[in-house]
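Hi R.,

Quick one: here's the Arylsulfatase G sequence you asked about.
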Amino acid sequence: MGTPSLSPWAVLVLALVLVGLWAPCVLSRQPNFIVILADDVGWGDLGANWPETTETPQLDQLAAEGTRFVDFHSAASTCSPSRASLLTGRLGVRNGVTHNFAIASLGGLPLNETTLAEVLREAGYSTGAIGKWHLGHHGRHHPNSRGFDYYFGIPYSHDMGCTDTPGYNLPPCPPCPQHGTAARVARKDCYTEVALPLFENVTIIQQPVELGSLAARYAEEAARFIQRASDSGRPFFLYLALAHMHVPLTPPRPPAPGRGIYGASLGEMDALVGRIKEVADSLGKGSTLLWFAGDNGPWAQKCELAGRLGPFVGAWQRQRGGSSAKQTTWEGGHRVPALVYWPGRVPARRTSHALLSVLDIFPTLVALAGAALPPDRRFDGLDVSPVLFGWSDVGHKVLLHPNSGAAGKVGEIEALRLAQYKAFYTTGGAMACDGSTGPAERHQPPLIFNLDRDLQEQEPLDVASREYQAVLPAISRAYAQALQDIAADNVSVADYSQDPAAIPCCNVQHVGCRCHGATLDPHVEKRTPRLCL
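And here's the predicted structure, written out as tokens:
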């Protein structure tokens, strides 16, 4: 029996229906993009994720008006590698950024890597970065040389320099010395000699930074950038990399009883995000996609100044000592809160269980902008716009997790996710609140957990069990194929060399490099010492 043919009129009607179904992807104009990246935030720091959290009404409202992603992961469990992956769509083993850059680093994200800002600027976007950079600040590694028309922020983590108001940290750090004769006491994990700089483009406008007003300044500069871009008639891409919730914490006022320092700081971050949403909505709802995510999990060794893991406690590791959060490949290290808000495009009040990653931001925004991915390289991220629009809930089949400062070689793939299964090849080596690090252990065959039954990662599958034997070949194949794919790729190598001349210092004559502003040209490679000691 033959297939009945359709009349020309029926074909036309069917075509119109299909066009209507795909209409959300046919954009009348290029959308604006705001990516907000929180620092050291826990999956459980979002009230919509974890009912015990009450300090995030603005983020919870964002979740109610958009889509919440509960199986969303950072690409690494520490600062520089995670940010490099967001801006390139590639893991550190491909883009070269495997661990953090220092204040004296000469290098940064390799120059042959193409950033999301460069692609979008070429597509007609105004591009701005506000907040923490941490991908190299010397020479051509400065954000203004990596695709961003405008930059306002701190070139690395805000604990990597002294300030006059140090805030809350463990261990506590002293303020900057005020005079050249001031006593300087070396403190472990504290930067006591050079003040923390605040940049506007290539100018240091404050050194040391006033941390107490930083959140308000970020909000103000973000609003100004959005308004300037709107006035120009061009679409914009704003990358807002918050100081929250990294230590030192500097809540705007003394914490209310029961909230604590962390809770007060979390509330400040929440208000900042709410302000950015308000500014975006003022341009007309539906014109701007806002994507909120975390760069990695909480820094466990900071104890009460670290965030909430939710259920992802890495119980197997905790039983043996050491952290199961930041720096590790346990879920608490890389499963982060994530929300996407885009009225009229992204469904409201939806929870997605798709396996997604910070890596997906690059290819997804490039696709939505109507641009093309850079050639001659492979990407770990996916265009997940069908998931954003609610047409699908399928993300990655396989997701790789690199070592980010725990046991093993930095940047190496030490864990792998395949569907609901998580395989570990190396564990241990990250410090917990009690000072323990846990033994560094290599697992061959790997530890395998079924996350559908064991979100706490408490009990690995018995190696002799039928389930373990059934899933191990698929995991082994996926792991081998991933390593082969990386080996065959155009892989970059970052320069991690250091020179005191690379330390941002606007006045070498003043103790701690104090100043009120001086221009630094990022294209000039300075080799004379600018470090005040």
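The chain has one domain: 32-502.

Cheers,
M.
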